[in-house]
Amino acid sequence: MDIDTAVVLAAGEGTRLRPLTRNRPKPMLPAGNRPILEHVFDALVEAGVEELVTVVGYKRDRVQNHFGPTYRDVPVTYVTQRKQLGSGHALLQASEAVDESVLVLNGDRLIDAGTVSAVADSFAETGDPTLAVVERRETSRYGALQMHGDEITELVEKPRTDDYRLINGGVYAFSADIFTAIEETPRQEGELALTDTLERIIEQDRVRGVEVDGMWVDATYPWDLLTVAREVLSRGRVVEAARSDGVWIADSARVHREAVLQGPVVVGQDCEVGPDAVIGPNTALGSNVTVGSNAVVQDSVIDADTRIDPGSTLMDTVTGQDVHLGASTVVPSGPADVQVGTSIFEEQRLGAVIADRARARGNVSFTPGSLVGPKARLDVGVTVRGNVEEGAEVTR
Amino acid sequence: MCGIIGCVGRGDETLDTLVHGLSKLEYRGYDSAGVAMAGDSLSLCKTSGKIADLRDALSKTALSGSVGIGHTRWSTHGPPTDSNAHPHQDCTGDVAVVHNGIIENYQTLRDELVAAGHSFTSDTDTEVVPHLIEDALAEGAEPEDAVRQAIAQLEGSYAIAAVVAGTEAIFAARHDSPLVLGLDDGATYLASDVPAFRDFTDQVVYLSDGEFARLDESGWEVTDSDGLVVEKDVDTIEWDPEETGKSGYDHYMIKEIHEQPRALRQCLRERVDEMAGTVDLDDLGDLSPTGVQFVACGTSYHAALYGAQLFREAGIPAQAFLASEYATSVPPIGDALVVGVTQSGETADTLSALRAAEKRGARTLVVTNVVGSTAARECDHAFYIRAGPEIGVAASKTFSSQLAALNLLTLGMTQSDEAREVINALRELPGDLQRILDESRAEEVAETYTDAGAYFFIGRGLQFPVALEGALKMKEITYKHAEGFAAGELKHGPLALVTSETPVFAVIIGDDEKARKTVGNVKEVEARDAPVVAITDGQTDVHRYADHVLEIPETHERAAAVLANAHLQLLSYHTAAKLGRNIDKPRNLAKSVTVE
Hints:
CATH architecture of the largest domain in chain B: 4-Layer Sandwich
Number of domains of chain A: 2
Largest sheet of chain B: 8 strands, antiparallel
Helix content of chain A: 10-25%
Number of helices of chain B: 17
Number of strands of chain A: 40
Structural class of chain B: alpha/beta
Largest sheet of chain A: 10 strands, mixed
Helix content of chain B: 25-40%
Strand content of chain B: 15-25%
Radius of gyration of chain B: 25 Å
Mean pLDDT of chain B: 91
CATH class of the largest domain in chain A: Alpha Beta
Shape of chain A: globular
CATH architecture of the largest domain in chain A: Alpha-Beta Complex
Mean pLDDT of chain A: 92
Oligomer: heterodimer
Number of domains of chain B: 3
Distance between the termini of chain A: 61 Å
Distance between the termini of chain B: 12 Å
Shape of chain B: globular
CATH superfamily of the largest domain in chain A: Spore Coat Polysaccharide Biosynthesis Protein SpsA, Chain A
CATH topology of the largest domain in chain A: Spore Coat Polysaccharide Biosynthesis Protein SpsA, Chain A
CATH class of the largest domain in chain B: Alpha Beta
Largest interface: A-B, 32 and 29 residues
Structural class of chain A: alpha/beta
Strand content of chain A: 25-35%
Low-confidence stretches of chain B: none
């Protein structure tokens, strides 16, 4: 691969993933039991990138602290986008750190090394701006596009019609000219979107598209982290040691010999799993998670420092970090209608989303599809229905 | 503290390698720097000030050779000037020496050398060494023997590296001051501390006291004081040199404060078993002490005060001593285990105290962060806090990890009804600490009191060492007056200092008698118009008397001490940042104090 440097955009919060983004940006939410951004870095490192320039902004400390100055021996540098004024503006922040051709990626989507290499190789042929193109039935959440040959003829953000089947994969290769092109792009309501610049280039010049069919997974809403985890586990993209087929356990984790792990399942560093607990399938435990005896955790993503006390049952559940669920907590699975703001998402397969530092004292039941805000306190024996605000107390 | 680097076998890159090594030693604190290169003749460049000043000076000087030594100096004898900077030379200009430590008989040696006609250009103790080598060379000794003869005349502590014109080799020796060799294909390095060459190799050989090393193009050889070859183990360094980068943070200190959840996880890893309620102390075996004496300095002393209290709570007599005082007047030890607490494992005062205890037949243990450090090698046992490298001169994450490690030590060595509760609290500590980092309002508080005349910190029981540490951090990085007091002592004197210009930071945990009494002390200062900042889990009504509250989650009081301290770290950091202080390298301070 001819391009040594990648700029990864990780400055935005990802507001549709609230309340999980209360303390960290979307790229730091778990794909399995590792941050999404770690998977992006993996793809870049495996494709041969030698420098990772990361644009950080919202809660940037979490990114910097997690990765530090190197990732898998590749230097990581950080540039700060003080205000989140669009992807073009974000990329512009990195101009000082880049002097030649560069790969540009969104830090909040899972991709693989093949996609990165395909874009870089295609770019090398002509030097025109190049982007990865992904086929999707559902294009309305993404940037859709039309192609003629390998040239992109149209870019439309979140199209309202069903006429499109291709979307912008968010993996680009550019020469250093891109920075001038962004600067020349007029701001829309103060913001600079990278796609606005690309649209101008499409009009005046050429933008190449390269169709890729590797992994391409995006989480739009909190419950999407469940499907992301399935994808990650089915591809074995975990760092823990494999104990048997589809069962990965970190060396430092303590799993009681009378606990049952049903693959695919991953147990992170420093976890403790008690006797007769049943974990999996399709479940990821982040680091330092404690699962008490006789607890059942299925099809769930349990983030770091969370404690699930004895006798609890969790199905299709996403927890944030440092959530404490007291003994005999019960979260049954959906399908359920989930309310986000004023929108209702019908028939979602979801038990509950429980954000960072929420506390359930014990014997708490959740109706399927509940969203619980950070630091909410749920008293003994309550039943949670629907949404609970940040810091709210639910008492009987 | 002073830093040494040496390099053989990197050809034209030797000089760059030396300067790079010096920049990696910057974190130890220094006020001048220099390098010397040996070829057929010797060339040298040194200057007071920063590494950048040395680079400037080098751009105007032609230095050549494939063997060289370099030094960052932190003044002990004589002010930070160009002439006092290392390397030092002899009268002929054919010998150059760098040195860490203190040569105690230097005045006698210097008087003799001056009487014999040598002229000195610096105020340093080090300068006697090149002149001694010069004399030995003049009497016909081979360079290696000349260096040996010179070193044999020294008393005190030293890590020394010397080069001689016409000899493509570095000669080095140590006594009570660290030196380590780095081995790479075709190149050999020498340094006072691994980060100096860690970018080039992870293969190291630690020199022991009394050993002598020769590095040249053909490799390296370590000999004892009689010149007999010593077989040395080659160790592999596991940590990543890039951890010495700031990764987007403004200062190492704030980076290290944010690293605490991870550092704590590493400290606890595979040592605690919550389900079983047990702690496994690596291979320390069964020490079951009948008494414990802690020796430590600075921040580590505050950790020691905390540790002593944990042992006393478990019914074992325990005391914490300032290491420098302990070494001066060693108390009766009896059967007590003597425990040194030192981040670097190289703290000279703590090493002296441990050696004094060992001399009296005591069993010794060190709680340290640095594997292979002098303390780790000299003590009977070592227990590692596993905090990872700490670059900021003011200790932050290592204090938290020391407290966690001392909890493990107590749990592992004693019986306690509270064991399960404490283990549970320790396992929750990383998450709880992350909460402080995410939510602390310490920056606002710092902003409010940036112009305060003085800062006072009070606490009782386990929170007393936290008050002391809070004050020390404030002093170290803001240069402002700060004191920590046992809350009950306030009215026995310090209360006279309290005014409306002196905020009082009170650490109040739980709602037991201790906490209620401290609330009483808070009322005393509030009545004297002092602003009050309560660091509390909110179980008392202290918020009624406080101007600001820094909240910590409810947990065991042992874990609460770590959390309260995190707020105080952030408070000092943000105060220092607002005052524009040199946070990572505060004036007059060094990371590891390797002189007594």
